[in-house]
Automatic annotation (TrEMBL), chains A, B:
GO biological process: L-histidine biosynthetic process
Protein source organism: Pelagimonas phthalicica
Cellular location(s): Cytoplasm
Protein name: Phosphoribosyl-AMP cyclohydrolase
Keyword line: Amino-acid biosynthesis, Cytoplasm, Histidine biosynthesis, Hydrolase, Magnesium, Metal-binding, Zinc
Function: Catalyzes the hydrolysis of the adenine ring of phosphoribosyl-AMP.
GO cellular component: cytoplasm
The family this protein is said to belong to: Belongs to the PRA-CH family. In the C-terminal section; belongs to the PRA-PH family.
Complexes and interactors: Homodimer.
Catalytic activity: 1-(5-phospho-beta-D-ribosyl)-ATP + H2O = 1-(5-phospho-beta-D-ribosyl)-5'-AMP + diphosphate + H(+); 1-(5-phospho-beta-D-ribosyl)-5'-AMP + H2O = 1-(5-phospho-beta-D-ribosyl)-5-[(5-phospho-beta-D-ribosylamino)methylideneamino]imidazole-4-carboxamide
Domain Phosphoribosyl-AMP cyclohydrolase: 30-103
GO molecular-function terms, A-Z: magnesium ion binding; phosphoribosyl-AMP cyclohydrolase activity; phosphoribosyl-ATP diphosphatase activity; zinc ion binding
Assigned EC number: 3.5.4.19
Length: 119, 119
């Protein structure tokens, strides 16, 4: 069946969450949001493109930092309301310079830092 | 630092997205939503508990189906607005009886089914 970004289920702001996962390792890098145009651009360019809620503009991941995400595969969930982008992440995915945004564990009621910023 | 679910960033409905990932394999199983009480219950019971938006009630994953998620680790992202639950998933995570909800790939503009329902 042919895929149309318009068939996805967007929230009241026209956005759908997208999880980015490193190809091969399975590491979860980040979660950000896309609108229908960002989904289309991501598929066309193979450069993962989000919608920045703070800037209200397209956010081609790594465009300024160089920490790009090359799209390997885009997957849709059973309810069509969440996306999974399997990617090749160049360097850190997180704005804190860590590989992943999910670097804080809640362990025995305490926040524990699992990884340091990359050099 | 001690963790308090109230410090997370919730949306206008008081919800935060939570990604469930199988421990060890890195497989992404599903994404669903939690409110602050669901986060607290998940940490207390080690049984992953979401907030069902359709039923407007707690959803202890697997309570009726038996397809439970045992919490191995809960992680918070850099913006405190997304959670990652590393879990041991019993059987299928998806209501379609597939292991993961992300069973549809968009490949060359077509939807491709990556996995079949479990027996």
């Amino acid at each position: 069946m042919s895929f149309d970004p318009a068939t996805l289920v967007y929230d009241a702001n026209g956005l759908i969450p997208c999880i980015a996962q490193q190809d091969g390792t399975g590491e979860i890098l980040m979660m950000a949001w896309m609108n229908a145009d960002a989904v289309a651009k991501t598929l066309e360019t193979k450069r993962v493109t989000y919608w920045s809620r703070s800037r209200q503009s397209f956010w081609i991941k790594g465009e300024t930092s160089g920490h790009t995400q090359e799209l390997i595969d885009l997957r849709v969930d059973c309810d069509q309301d969440c996306l999974l982008a399997v990617v090749n992440q160049e360097g850190p995915a997180c704005h804190t310079n860590r590989r992943s945004c999910f670097y804080t564990s809640v362990t025995d009621g305490e926040e524990v830092e699992l990884m340091k910023p990359m050099k």
